[in-house]
Specification:
The chain has about 200 residues and is mainly β. It has a single domain, classed as Jelly Rolls (Sandwich), CATH 2.60.120.200. It comes from Streptomyces naganishii JCM 4654.
Length: about 200
């Protein structure tokens, strides 16, 4: 299913399980069902081939920033809403507001064959601003408590410039251990630029 958001210059398409995605009055909402997640264990555990989570993704061109305030209806450990980057089935990344495991936390996962997992900072309440940016083969993750001052979280790549230039980018919901959760995204913004400085808070 294709979804058009007036805030974005590219169309979005649904991937994975049904996320019941809806957009109204500037707010996007999606729902993760029970035990839905995207994570490839790095320690050699068997991966459930059916493991997946609802995603709503599109293909921006060139340099960009995708920004949204994310609000998660937490009910179980690791419930999360995320901005998501997809280059290949084992080459993707997510920037999450996650209940990790009992306090809202900004965390990241970068998957290159297998997934890593890193926590950044904790958040009071159930909302935070997230931003994913791209220039060339590089991606950057930032987060903000107020939408004004941005904390640098991560800089990484998922392949060659040709591969990353064709990346799909957008939104994801997850509930790995729970019975599901609702995530909303508002203040969605697209900028056709790379941040001027990754570490100065802008």
């Amino acid at each position: 299913m294709d979804v058009e958001l007036p805030e974005l210059p590219f169309a979005l398409r649904t991937y994975g399980p049904d996320g019941h995605w809806e957009h109204e009055d500037g707010m996007l909402s999606g729902w993760a069902g029970p035990r839905q997640d995207r994570f490839v264990p790095p320690a050699g555990e068997a991966l459930d081939p059916a493991s997946d989570a609802p995603r709503l993704l599109g293909a921006p061109e060139g340099d960009f920033q995708l920004i949204a305030r994310v609000t998660v209806g937490f009910s179980a450990s690791f419930d999360a809403g995320a901005l998501y980057v997809h280059v290949g089935e084992r080459a993707w990344a997510k920037l999450c507001l996650e209940y990790s495991p009992d306090v809202p936390t900004v965390c990241t996962v970068v998957t290159r064959g297998h997934s890593d997992d890193a926590n950044s900072f904790t958040v009071e309440g159930s909302s935070v601003w997230l931003r994913v940016s791209r220039t060339g083969r590089a991606f950057a993750f930032h987060a903000s408590r107020d939408g004004s001052h941005w904390t640098f979280v991560r800089l990484f790549t998922l392949g060659t410039e040709k591969e990353t230039g064709a990346a799909l980018v957008g939104f994801m919901t997850q509930s790995p251990l729970g019975e599901g959760c609702v995530v909303t995204y508002d203040h969605i913004e697209y900028r056709p630029t790379w941040p001027a400085d990754l570490r100065d808070g802008s």
